[in-house]
């Protein structure tokens, strides 16, 4: 009898383990199949600068090498000023960053801000490879339309990884990273610790690896109460960056709540120093 009971228990445990394994593999499979819907949250509204009261900007279309069209908002630089290439975050389109773009323009900088493929009026669907391609195309477009101007990069949230990668490929006067991550896979491990994210994720945005190739000065700003990208991610990225580098931690604020007060003034000052052109 005892042997029969033990045998039944073993059989039950084996069946339960098999069911749990099948269920876990099902969860992993669902996550793998739907991961880009969980990674990207594009705002697909196509808006022109004039629609949001942004004077001095024009809407431009930038062709990418893989056949997509990226929508950008462009304002040429004032004399002695350079260009800021603005790479926005997730869940937004260009109209969400009017205050930042206006402040940059009023400071005299040339500004090119782009909507990623699948965001705003841009064609296509977002992927890591696609966003890196969009950024290169935007940089090259700005360099062609403001010849001789120095170009600084301003990456925000999702756009920080793209900015880091771009700075390792193109000459950058400096790089501002607002609320960055060390890697998207690291953020995924924070939210989904029960999943093998490093095996499942297609778009990992390994900024901490890419930043080792960046020679330009780097400024990182992050809020200590950020619930979307933990401060520890930005601190890890900062440790991986080479000199010159600087980091500012803002107290009591949430994700990308950084564009005001001393932080905004410092970023504008950095862009001015990084991109200054000699008077003709």
What does this structure look like?
- The structure is a single chain.
- The chain has helices at residues 2-39, 98-106, 128-145, 158-167, 184-191, 197-200, 207-210, 231-240, 261-275, and strands at 58-63, 69-75, 83-87, 110-114, 151-156, 175-178, 218-223, 245-250.
- It has 280 residues and is an alpha/beta fold.
- It has two domains: 1-39; 43-275, Alpha/Beta hydrolase fold, catalytic domain (Rossmann fold, 3-Layer(aba) Sandwich), CATH 3.40.50.1820.
- Strands 1-2-4-3-5-6-7-8 form an eight-stranded mixed beta sheet, sandwiched between helices.
- The mean pLDDT is 92.
Q: What is the element layout, followed by pairings?
A:
Layout: H1 2-39, E1 58-63, E2 69-75, E3 83-87, H2 98-106, E4 110-114, H3 128-145, E5 151-156, H4 158-167, E6 175-178, H5 184-191, H6 197-200, H7 207-210, E7 218-223, H8 231-240, E8 245-250, H9 261-275
Parallel strand pairs: 3-4, 3-5, 5-6, 6-7, 7-8
Antiparallel strand pairs: 1-2, 2-4
CATH architecture of the largest domain: 3-Layer(aba) Sandwich
Query: Proportion of β residues?
Result: 15-25%
CATH topology of the largest domain: Rossmann fold
Strand order of the largest sheet: 1-2-4-3-5-6-7-8
Give the fraction of residues assigned to helices: 40-55%
Q: Could you state the CATH homologous superfamily of the largest domain?
A: Alpha/Beta hydrolase fold, catalytic domain
* Tally of helical segments: 9
Largest sheet: 8 strands, mixed
Query: Which oligomeric form is depicted?
Result: single chain
